[in-house]
Amino acid sequence: MPSVLHTVVHDTFHRPAQVDGPAARTLAALRRSRRGGLLERAGCKRLDQVPWRLRTFPVLAALAPVMTSPEGEITYPGDPMCLYAALSVVVDSALKSARLTADGAEDMPFTDLCPDWRCPPSKERRLGARHGLRPDAEAAGTPDSAVFDPRVWDDRARDDLRACTRRLRPKVFLVSTVSPGHRYALQMARVVKEETPDCLVVFGGRHMDETMRYAPAGRSVVLQYSSTLRAIEEGRAEPVVDFCVSGEGYFALDLLMKAIALTMDLDRTRARVRDVVETLSLLGAAGLRLPGNSLLCARDGSDLHAFPVRGEKYDLAELPSPYQGFAIRSRFPVFPVLGGGPARTAHMTVSNACPYHCDFCSESALVVGGLKRFGASPAQAGLERVCEYVSYGAEAVFFDDSIFWSGTFRAIREFCAALHSARTATGSDELPERCRRWIVGGDDWQRLRNLQFGCQVTADLLTTLHSEDEVRDMLDALREAGCTYLYMGIESMSDEVMEHVHKNIRRVADLPWKQKVRTALARIREARIPVGSSVLFGLEGETRQSIEETVEEVGRLVDDGLVMLASPNILTYHPATRITRDHDMQDRLDYHSPDVDNRPPYIYFEEAFPGVVSRRLSEDDIWFIHEATAKRWGTVRNSAEPDLL
Question: Which of 130, 129, 151 is CA-nearest to residue 63?
Fold first, then answer.
């Protein structure tokens, strides 16, 4: 429903660029005045002479966790890529500003004050980065030092955040959150506001994308029941958030941080929301335009200021690398290295959404707002990004795309051919020119030649959408390029349940879903690639009988050696998915209350909380799923408790 806040829509960024002469002159004068004041304070004649510490303000960024207990399946799941990706453009702007200042250049992304992200990690620091949470000393001086990344929200995490806030004294707190982590994001914001009341808090992430959008026909902002701003407006959440960003927010966040920098007093003490709103309006009137579609909202008392952005399309490959400012820390056991232990594993995506339209999934292009991919020369762009990550120390890469290269066989084959050619090259002259700057030393070459990678596929992709020969050729290409792990969403082994799932897109009478799954897994095994799988309980049509059928049928896959890992999950309602609307849950989702009793059996499943899991499951069903999968699937279940095995 539309918000009842007093909403002021600033649609400058939603229109074609029309430079307002007076606004452009006002902006230029503001920048000159601020630079002059900064030089006077520092006693310098040129900006490049101003010490960096006098130009910067501290920023803290965080990924909100989705769990409160380390029980059950909790392990370190990898690097916080949604946060790194969201920060990629603004971190790039800050790093460019630091470099240009050193060269004495005047045309910098941040024209005076700048977030304190001065330099990326050195190669030595990247290669020495450890698995898990980062210690302060290790990350000092890099954007890593401005990231708080707990994987569980408990008393210790709360104390750690308080200590981190007292140490950094951030002027801006940036939080990326999915819906199940939103309640903890609010608690994190409260801690930061308690310690630094003038700190501006900015929320982004998938929860914003799903709950906050702009309706151009009515020039209004639509806030879902579970949205941050509506929860604050209705008194269900504390007013601890100042800005929210939704949509393709890479560029909108960069704009917001530049507006904050231009607004902040030169003593770097504070920036007020109202003044930031005025600066945003000035930047728009002066002709600044952004790529992509996004929505930036500012909460100033009872006023909601909305800045919708509708800009030009962009190529996903043109975004700055998410790892530019951060070390690769994740270690995935599915990628073992010689000598023992898991490989240092980078995360990578070449698309932003899933082409399927499954009603339960928040990764669908229908939910995300469209499918974007690596565009021009995608195979070469993908190879360059892989080589960059190898130079950062990656021994393995996992492609987080919902489906590898959106399931396009031609793109998969071209990328695999390019990667295979690079891995077997005998010297840099055999590498594409754009890759040569990354693969320079003997250790880089060794990691490239031994590189492993994994990706996600679907049963349909490997059975009914392509001929058997095409599938086998594609799997062979994956293996020869270094693929050592595939992940496939089984979801359910009940044909009745899968009748409702769009992933089961090509329905063939003589090939029911469970046989599709078996056929796909058998073809993967014949290609000698290990495979893991996920199972989702609580879909439309789920009953105790279908649960038992799925548990048993997946158990048979385990018995036959067709899967090396099986991950049971409980369907959780995401605000923008169709199943949430069909089950009449859109206005019942409590993702804000701090005192939810997150107890067994919910804690054994990621993102599962009382009140937001499938209405097709009782608590007894969830207990049954937890215990039955642990017993039947044994150690192949990645989340079973040891005492149940």
Answer: 151
